[in-house]
Amino acid sequence: MPVEDPEESFNELQRSGHLEEVRGGLEFLVKAEQVEEHAGQETIQDSGITDSVDFRMDERDSQLWSSVTQGLHVNNSGHPDGSYTTERTLLSVSTVRSVTVRKMLQRLVLARPAALLFAALRCASSGTVDVKVPLNFWCGDRVKISDVSTTEPVYEPATGRVLCELEPCGSVEVNQAVQAAQSAYQAWSRMSGMERAHIMIEAARIIENRREDIAEIEVVNNGKSITEARMDVDSARLCIEYYAGVASTLAGQHVQLPGGSFAYTRREPLGVCVGIGAWNYPFQIAAWKSAPALACGNSMVFKPSPVTPVTAVLLAEIYAKAGAPEGLFNIVQGGQETGNLLCHHPDVAKVSFTGSVPTGKKIMEMCSKGVKHVTLELGGKSPLLIFEDSDLENAVKGALMANFLSQGQVCSNGTRVFVQRQMLPEFLEEVVRRTKDIEIGDPLLESTRMGALVSRPHLDRVLGYVDQARKEGAKVLCGGEPFVPLDPKLRGGYYMTPCVLGNCTDNMTCVKEEIFGPVMSVLSFETEEEALLRANDSALGLAAGVFTSDVKRAHRVVEQLKAGSCFINNYNITPVEVPFGGFKMSGIGRENGQVTVEHYTQMKTVFVEMGDVDSLF
Ligand SMILES: NC(=O)c1ccc[n+]([C@@H]2O[C@H](COP(=O)([O-])OP(=O)(O)OC[C@H]3O[C@@H](n4cnc5c(N)ncnc54)[C@H](O)[C@@H]3O)[C@@H](O)[C@H]2O)c1
Ligand SMILES: C[N+](C)(C)CCCC=O
């Protein structure tokens, strides 16, 4: 209902979380919804239409607020059968103020007819977004580097156009960020778990409010579908919520000693932690690293991949807005050189890295110089074992989930699909049919299931693997070709058709190496023992999966699989309350779950003497 009193309406909007003040002004994300009522049942449909309006605090006058609140519900129309349709707008905050498309939309007035809203464009559409604001962030604010010698272009995978210019941080900037983190650490580490939890819960709430906004920008920078990007934002939020809960449970042990003396242990934070991320889950990785780090009382300097630098800074803004001390979570942009500076920095206590095995080895070596704690989440070439007693429908769905999420650019993907011989023909027929049906195209469209790969060189590399597989004797059962969407604005994008390779053997390159693209290699096997031997024949051990209806076999097989994250009758499920990480060269340490507390704290033991010192001297 429209609220009459402008001041009250402002307060009401703030309380409901639909409106928040941003520095020096206000910015609204206006969303159109359609509410259908039939027989007392309301269904709300998101029209997918959003635009934004931005104005200064001094414009907060009665007239303006009336128009804002009038925008909340508009255009009620009754139908002859007694049902009605309400087209309404919701207001929520957006701080991605840099994006040109939003600026363009500022000229639209708020109190417009609903029809005009519905005719408007989606907030971000492929090929329209430019990011101009600084992407570095420390001391609670975005930072423009004063002396930038070189910038690097960042691309929009869906179109191939330049999205922004990256300003990499050198030693001066890395020092500033680490210093900011150190000073925030002094205050943050002394707060109680409950106090930290309050701020983290608030950050999670802001993420929930800005879900669509963050997901859209993730799509624009990464190329994955909007459907998946929303899931990533949800996973980030859930992770922060989960560790907010963990924060107040951190505790030590009391140990009784002779003569009334005792000892106790304290779980203490490490200090300034560094997070270094890969490009496949930019926002989610930033959250998966920062949430446990902050919950345990550490501060963090995070370096996103230079390929996808845009969304981590949104997380930094969100923590700051939620009440985190200045410098608690900082972003430094850059590639290898910036990463090296962070790993060698004397004031950094720990590095948590997500990326490739070769880089992981370098990180570990650099950390060894300062004897720093290190967590490595590295690559995989994971096996998926499908036994003939599996439910075919679920096995096929599992294999698709194991290979084609995020255009196949997922560390845990089960790319070596071992199918028991008797089931192979029907499995292949179904998996190929469904793979051909995957809708490729504009990642911002709801119907798209596969967007663009992250970059042109990466696309070429993946296509190269398909060529090589063909030469080595694999049969391309479908896909593996460059894909050019009909929409002219997408012609420069990095698309390919998802590929299923048959006739694969263990010695082929496509079966041995991590391709990190939408390429499934299918192999056949006869016996459980044989499948296990072949599945474990890899230097990597991130994940593995088993499909079978025999519960004893499922557990027997999983027990013998040399992988850190195993799935029975499903694949690529990563609830944040469950630890995730690899065996062998796929990594060290875990992310998510209770155990991660051990990777972000150190234990102090305190001995307390209640009697006299029993000295030998
Ligand atoms: N296990 C997991 O949880 C997980 C998750 C996502 C991705 N990955 C892996 O990541 C890889 C793909 O990501 P990528 O191409 O971004 O990996 P990458 O190793 O090339 O880069 C990862 C990060 O490391 C930085 N970096 C590169 N060289 C560095 C150096 N010498 N010192 C410090 N930092 C350095 C990069 O700038 C980037 O931020 C795949 O192998 C994939 O399996 C693993
Ligand atoms: C959420 N997923 C799809 C399991 C991805 C985990 C992170 C690895 O790249």
Automatic annotation (TrEMBL):
Residue ranges of coiled coil: none
GO cellular component: cytosol
Catalysed transformations (reactions): 4-(trimethylamino)butanal + NAD(+) + H2O = 4-(trimethylamino)butanoate + NADH + 2 H(+); an aldehyde + NAD(+) + H2O = a carboxylate + NADH + 2 H(+)
Pathway membership, UniProt: Amine and polyamine biosynthesis; carnitine biosynthesis
Pfam family, one: Aldedh
Keywords: Cytoplasm, NAD, Oxidoreductase
Subcellular location: Cytoplasm, Cytosol
GO molecular function terms listed in the Swiss-Prot or TrEMBL record: 4-trimethylammoniobutyraldehyde dehydrogenase activity; aldehyde dehydrogenase (NAD+) activity
Domain Aldehyde dehydrogenase intervals: 150-606
Entry-linked SUPFAM superfamilies: ALDH-like
Residues forming the catalytic site: E377
Keyword Oxidoreductase assigned: yes
Signal peptide: none
Assembly mode: Homotetramer.
Protein's job: Converts gamma-trimethylaminobutyraldehyde into gamma-butyrobetaine with high efficiency (in vitro). Can catalyze the irreversible oxidation of a broad range of aldehydes to the corresponding acids in an NAD-dependent reaction, but with low efficiency.
Assigned protein family: Belongs to the aldehyde dehydrogenase family.
Protein name: Aldehyde dehydrogenase domain-containing protein
Lineage: Eukaryota, Metazoa, Chordata, Craniata, Vertebrata
